[in-house]
Write a structure and sequence with these properties.
The complex is a heterodimer of chains A (117) and B (116).
Chain A: E1 4-7, E2 10-14, E3 19-25, E4 32-38, E5 45-51, E6 56-59, E7 62-67, E8 72-77, E9 86-95, E10 101-107, E11 111-116
Parallel strand pairs in A: 2-11
Antiparallel strand pairs in A: 1-3, 3-8, 4-5, 4-9, 6-7, 7-8, 9-10, 9-11
Chain B: E1 5-7, E2 10-13, E3 19-24, E4 31-37, E5 44-50, E6 53-57, E7 64-68, E8 74-78, E9 87-94, E10 106-107, E11 111-115
Parallel strand pairs in B: 2-11
Antiparallel strand pairs in B: 1-3, 3-8, 4-5, 4-9, 5-6, 7-8, 9-10, 9-11
Classes of the chains: A mainly beta (117), B mainly beta (116).
Amino acid sequence: GENVEQHPSTLSVQEGDSAVIKCTYSDSASNYFPWYKQELGKRPQLIIDIRSNVGEKKDQRIAVTLNKTAKHFSLHITETQPEDSAVYFCAASSSSRYGGSQGNLIFGKGTKLSVKP
Amino acid sequence: DSGVTQTPKHLITATGQRVTLRCSPRSGDLSVYWYQQSLDQGLQFLIQYYNGEERAKGNILERFSAQQFPDLHSELNLSSLELGDSALYFCASSVEASGTSGNTIYFGEGSWLTVV
C-alpha cells in the first residue's frame, strides 16, 4: 500500500519568510496529492491539491510542485503570516486493488508550522 | 462549514464499553471515509464506503466496524474500548470513489472520544 513521508515535523519561520514542506510517496499509481491545513482541535481543511498530470500549481501565496519520477511533492508558502501557523498534512491517494488510484487518502505525519511575528 | 456532519462532538466512556459515531456526508457525496487522529499523531485511514459498499480498508481494528446506510449516512462502531482508543475520529466525504479529477475530500468537525 501507499506510504507517505513528510518532512520536517516542525518548522519555525519569521513572518514574511517562505516555508517549504516536503513529502515523498511510495506508490507510483497515486495520482492525486492534496495538502490540508489543520488548526488545533479543528478539522483538516484542503488548501491546495495537484494531480499527476500537472507539475506545479499556484494559488496566491501557496504553491505545490510534483515530481512524479522522484515521487515527491512539496508545499511552498511565501510571505508567511502568523495566521499560517497550523499543522500541515500532505496526502496521496492510495492504489486500488482493482488498479488505478483509490479515493482514500494516505496522510503524512504532519508538519507543525509556527510563524513568528 | 464543510457540509459533513458528525455526532456526537464529544463523548466520554469507560473501558470495555461500545460507542457509535455517526456521519452525514455532504449532499450528493457517495463516498464516506473514516479517519482516526490520536494525540500528536497523523490521520490514520480506517475505512471507506462508496454508495453502501465497503471500498477500502486501512488500519482498522477488528473491534471497530462501520457501515453506510441507503440514505448514505455512515456509522462507526467502536467496541471493547481501550484507553488507547481515545482519539479524534473524523468522517470525510467525496462525490466519487476514485481519487481522480474532481474528487476533493471534505472533512467533518470530528468526534472527540475519551475512554476513561
